[in-house]
Amino acid sequence: MKPDELKAWRKAERERLITARLALTQTQVDAWRERIDGFLERSFPGLASCRLALCWPIKNEYDARHIAKTLRARGALTALPVVVAPRQPLVFREWHPGVTLAKGPLDIPYPVDSAPVEPDAALLPMNGWDAMGYRLGYGGGFFDRTLASLARRPVTIGISYELARLDTIHPQPWDIAMDYVVTERGVYRRDPQGLAFLGAPEPAGEGGLASPVCYADEAYFKGRR
Questions:
Q1: pLDDT for 160-209, tens place per residue?
Q2: What is the chain's alpha carbon radius of gyration, rounded to the nearest angstrom?
Q3: Which three-class secondary structure state does DSSP give residue 24?
Q4: What residues contact residue 170 under an 8 Å CB cut-off, 6+ apart?
Q5: Closest Cα to residue 76, out of 100, 36, 45?
Q6: Average model confidence (pLDDT) across the chain
Q7: E strands of the chain, at which residues?
């Protein structure tokens, strides 16, 4: 696609997928959120001891605040992104209930004066996602620009729903693929040939393993604690 064609296509797809997401009932959104929470807990135990960036949910996105509360109770530090200026990398500041918030672009809250954080991992909402793990965001390019600017890139876990899956987002050189994708179906890992579906980890039975895919956590979180 030519640049103007790609921009128009992404805008149309973004609007289509957001409309589909907004049509979900709150009951459905809550049920999928609980499934995704469980998949994250069982597949990525390292999140409980890392510095985790997450996003404030809008427009029926996955609400990471619930898993953030669980992980903080186990020792994690959580942070939210802050828009510094247009076309500039984001910064992350510590967030937990009680931190002063202000309203930023799209009326999304951000921490005002808490300590800056260099995240070990990030849960990133995706309006759309494709077979190679590329993310369709809101069009500002903030997260791609931010990830490219960091001296040490965090583990990126894209969070979305199966209804938002695309064959391709027609990635460009500046687009950065997610390391993992988690949906209400289960967990995907990005391999050289594309996303590999690892399954839907179930709670451990007596004497059982916590998750058939928790090994995926080790290669990324070892040495980051």
A1: 999 999 999 999 999 999 999 999 999 999 999 999 999 998 876 444 33
A2: 17
A3: coil
A4: 1, 6, 9, 10
A5: 45
A6: 90
A7: 51-53, 77-82, 91-94, 101-103, 109-111, 121-125, 128-130, 135-136, 155-159, 165-166, 180-182, 187-191, 194-199
Q: Which residues neighbour 51 within 8 Å (Cβ) at sequence distance 6 or greater?
A: 76, 77, 78, 79, 117, 118, 119, 120, 121
**Do residues 160 and 126 make contact, with C-beta atoms less than 8 angstroms apart?**
yes
Q: Above 50 in pLDDT, residue 56?
A: yes
Segment (H or E) for 18: helix 3-22
Beta-bridge partners for 165: 129
Residue 29's alpha-carbon distances to 63, 82, 126, in angstroms, are 9, 26, 15
Residues in CB range of 31: below 8 A, 6 or more apart? 184
Listed in sequence order, the residues at least 6 apart from 41 whose beta carbon sits closer than 8 Å to its beta carbon are 47, 67, 70
Q: pTM, whole model, 2 decimals?
A: 0.90
List beta partners, residue 156: 122
pLDDT class of 34 with cuts at 50, 70, 90: very high
